[in-house]
Amino acid sequence: MAQLRTTKRFLRLRSGTALAILLVASLIALVVALSGRDAVETRTNNTTRIDAILLSLSEMSVVFHQIQDGESQSQNLVLRGQLRRAAHNAQEAFDALSGPNVVESFSPDAEAILTRPNMNPLMELEEVLYLADVVVAASASDTSINLAAKLASDLSFRLMPFFNRVRQSEVEAAEAAADDQVLYGLAALLVTILGVGIAIQFAHLPMERYVLGAQMEIERNQRAAEAASEAKSMFLATMSHEIRTPLNGVLGLADVLSDTQLNKEQRRMLGMISSSGRDLLQIINDVLDLSKLEAGKSTLEFVDFDLETLCRETTDLFSGQAIGRDVELSVSVSPSDAGWYLHAAPSAVRQVLSNLVGNAVKFTENGKVTVHLEDMPGPEGAPRFVRIAVKDEGIGISPEAVDRIFNQFEQADTSTTTRFGGTGLGLSIVKRLAETMNGRINVHSVLHEGSEFALIIPVAKALHRKERPQVIKDALFDKFVLVADDNRVNQMVAQKLLQKLGCEVRLAGNGEEAVKLVSDWMPDLVLMDVRMPVMDGLEATRQIRADLSIPNAQTLPIVGLSANALDEHADASAMAGMSGYLEKPITREALIAELLRHWPDTPQADDREDLSA
Amino acid sequence: MTFKHFLRPLGLAATVCFGPTALKAGEDLAWLYTWRASTPDAFSESFVKEHPEGLVIDTFMVPDEAEARLAAQNTGYDVSVLPAEIVKRLADMDALMPIDTPVAIDWEAAPASASVAQTDALSRVADYYVPYVWGTTGLVMDVEAIRARLPDAPLDSWDLLFDPQNAAALSDCGISIVESAQEVFAITLHHLGRDPNGITTEDLDAGFATLREIMPHLRGISAKQLEEMSSGDTCLGLVWSTVGLTLAKHVPNSNYTYVVPKEGSLIWSNVLVAPKSEEADSHRSGLLTHILSEENAETLANYVQAILSPKTFAGDMSAEQAAIAKASLPEGRDDLMFALRPLSGPKKYALDKRWRRLLISQ
To answer: SS3 for A512?
Structure first.
């Protein structure tokens, strides 16, 4: 950075010099233009005055000649009138030339002619005007008039070449001024080009090198950051798999164990095991979610759903926790003309709401937590925005802490972690998710009084009509299911769950065994772990689909299992030919739902009761 | 008034404004600027024989016309004939170019009376001229007509002209004065016994007072005396010797006699100069050589009844030239003669202004 700062000062100095040169060149050009304009204006005025004199002299000469020729009395009167007018014009031009500093404004050659002692044109012009006065005077005799006309005529003819020379000198001076202006303009252009050259050499090129170097460094750092991020994602994915796999085993077995005969103490301890496991799983999920969001690998699935139901269901998940903390948890929904069945990203909304409600309950003791759903008023024709506010009567947040609570691993104060637990990732995920949905999170909080977090997101009108939700109930499938998983605990969890659903289960430890068992045993469905030693689930799936000896190789339901929550695993599963995907740990509801998707005609608990009835 | 009448002054004005340069454009003619009717046709013809490009002779009638024309510069003339007294003013105006004289003059050997015009008028401008011709200014008179009116008046004195009673007596038979302000004024001052080249206010007052007294009796002040007096109805003229001798010699049945008054008079000198021009010096040398050649110089001088300066200075005059010289300047008058000195611009302006007032009787 020290080097960059030096370069910046250096570049500023050089670009300043270049700009100064350009400024000087521009000023020179301006001065040249102004002086050139003045010179041209002066020459034009001078030429106009001389033209007036030449024209008047010509007119007077004609009249003088005609008077000498002895025109008639009446004609002479007319001629004298013409002479008076021409002499008046000449007198005006003479007076203009006699003004202060007028002769000095002429070009040097013209000024020399106008001021020279020999044959001075202005003095001789004055003499012509005097003689013209004699000619037009009523009192003069004819002899005097004729003689004055002759003298004036001779003098006029002698004068005209001088004024013509003065005029020519002015024209040449104007041309020279124009040429000078061009030269000055060229000089200014050269200075400008020089300034541009200096600017290029000493400012632009170094700056370009500086910018390119900085850009390359940024790209290098970006690649390094991306590689680090990739490595982090890979690490997190790996770790999540490695941690979640045994955790799934713990939770799954605890679930299985809960269905057995246990005394009260055992059941309490089992509950603690499940609770601790779920907390741990939540932490892992949070870390994983954040990782996905940062890596930009989190894609939202926009579908039609009932937002009110989602809010109520999500809030209900925290009802037990709320009761434990003596918190009154409620949901209120404002009426909406558009209804709450809409098109948005339900999973993201659910996740945000879970975080917010979870926090609200966690930080409130003996108070109220209210979830309120409402439309955001907006102008007609504008996109619809909805607001989901979670208001609590908890400990509140100080104003200075409000700005940093959305940072990773940040909580309102250090004691919060100690007192309430948590990783400090929840609100960071909330904020990211809200932004991913093109929405935002608003916070209003008063310390010791409570907080309100509001999610505001744009929603669209539902694409399809609302359907009645499918209720997952117990079912007996009476099918052959092959479970392929390298982890013995997972094998056992899946086996127990499937057996409780009436399925006969066989186990395979890797993909190769799975392919063989499918060929030999001909199961109705395969639960195939994606990651396994010897042969992974993806390759095993491809081999099964390609095995012509298997009658239902193309239609056999193969459901992928993975503890890796990254979406690309689901995509890879589909690409390999799997017909479903379950995320570990497998829950009973998810498993039933997936099996029902493949065997929809399987009677569920209520149906069976109906049938038995 | 006819259309021709209207066009004539306009055409003249255009010629004056643009001069021969405009006429010369695209041509390679030689241009000579000289007195009106001062060159015989043979001169042009002989020049064209040697220089097929051709010769144009432009002319003037009074010195002021020539001075004004050349002062305007860029006239395109290769060579001009000028009265000596205006050379310095033109040189001061940078209207002339130095000229190499093909004539070597031994000033020491020159007769004092003949060289006075050269030395007085042309001092300090020796590089700008070549001596050409000289003559005198005197009186031409019809002796019989004058004697009929003034039986006792002296015919060899300026009193014949400047005495108002004499002038009044001769007014019916006509008195003409040459249109040359400086010459007439100088002779007037000389008649009054003053310095002929004086130009003080007192000089002006005295000179013009005398002239004003005889003005009412004059028939005219003219530059066309030769034409006007050829009819013989003007009995007295203040003229150049060239005019006076021509009238006496060539006018049929004339009784004119040219007289240099006994009080002395003016010796004038004409020189050859090179008007300044932006064009290349293509004909100056050739034209100068042609004018001063053995076969042309004397012919030209004799044609106008002038005396060729180089021959005068060299003491190598032909009989005809000697006769012209004798008629122009009778023996015994040398010491009484004077030449004009160049006037400065302001002094000439003052003189001309008085001159014009005199002419229009204001």
So the answer is: helix
Predicted confidence band at A256 (pLDDT cuts at 50, 70, 90)?
confident
Determine which helix (DSSP H) or strand (DSSP E) holds B228, and give its type and residue range. helix B225-229
Residue with tokens 């010195």: B63
Q: Residue B180's pLDDT is what? A: 93
Residues A510 and A403 in one domain: no
Q: Do the strands A440-446 and A450-461 form a parallel or antiparallel pair, or are they unpaired?
A: antiparallel
User: Which of A:328-357 have CB within 8 Å of B?
Assistant: none
With CA atoms as reference, the chain A residue closest to B93 would be A118
SS3 per-residue string spanning A478-496: CCEEEEECCCHHHHHHHHH
The predicted complex's ipTM stands at 0.84
Helices (H), A445-487: none
Tell me if A239 is assigned to some domain.
no
What dihedral angle (degrees, nearest 10) is formed by the CA atoms of A392, A397, A399, A403? -100
CB contact under 8 A, B362 and A134: yes
pLDDT in tens, A58-94: 999 888 888 887 766 678 778 888 889 999 999 998 9
Which CATH fold topology does B136-266+343-359 show?
Answer: D-Maltodextrin-Binding Protein; domain 2 (3.40.190)
Q: Name, in order, each residue with C-beta under 8 angstroms of B311's C-beta and a sequence gap of 6 or more.
A: B297, B298, B317, B318, B321
What is the C-alpha to C-alpha distance for residues A436 and A295, in angstroms, rounded to an integer?
A: 12
Q: How do residues A579-610 score in pLDDT, each as one tens digit? A: 888 887 787 888 888 888 888 877 766 554 44
For residue A553, give its domain range: 480-612
Nearest chain A residue to B354 by CA distance is: A127
pLDDT at B110 over 50: yes
Same domain, A407 and A520: no
Report whether pLDDT(B26) > 50: no
Q: In chain A, positions 154-213, which contact chain B (CB-CB < 8 Å)?
A: 154, 157-162, 164-165
- Determine the residue of chain A that is closest to B74 in CA distance: A165
CB contact under 8 Å between A62 and B6, yes or no, is yes
- Measured on CA atoms in the order B336, B342, B348, B352, is the torsion positive or negative? positive
Using pLDDT thresholds of 50, 70 and 90, give the confidence band for residue B332.
confident
Nearest-neighbour CA in chain B from A113: distance (Å): 9
Domain B3-114+125-133+269-316: which topology? D-Maltodextrin-Binding Protein; domain 2 (3.40.190)
Shortest CA distance to B340 belongs to which of B240, B235, B288, B269?
B269
Residue B201 touches chain A, beta carbons under 8 Å: no
- Out of B72, B344, B362, whose CB is closest to A165? B72
Q: Quick: pLDDT tens for A538-547.
A: 999 999 999 8
Q: How far apart are the C-alpha atoms of B194 and B207, rounded to whole Å?
A: 9
Number of A/B CB contacts below 8 angstroms equals 95
Q: Where are the domains of chain B?
A: 3-114+125-133+269-316, 136-266+343-359
The verdict on A334 and A446 lying in the same domain is yes
Q: Is A112 on the interface with B (CB under 8 A)?
A: no
Rank A202-211, A367-376, A559-568 by mean pLDDT and report only the highest: A367-376
DSSP A470: P
Residue A481 has pLDDT above 90, yes or no: yes
Chain A nearest C-alpha distance from B15 (Å)? 9
pLDDT digits (tens, 9 = 90+) for B229-242: 888 789 999 999 99
**Per the structure, how many domains does chain A have?**
3
Six-digit token pair at B298?
Answer: 């004397």
> For an interface test with B, which of A63, A157, A159 has the most B Cβ atoms less than 10 Å from its Cβ?
A157
Residue of A nearest to B353 (CA): A127
CB of A300 closer than 8 Å to CB of A436: yes
| CA–CA min distance A58, chain B (Å) | 7
Residue-level pLDDT at B8: 34
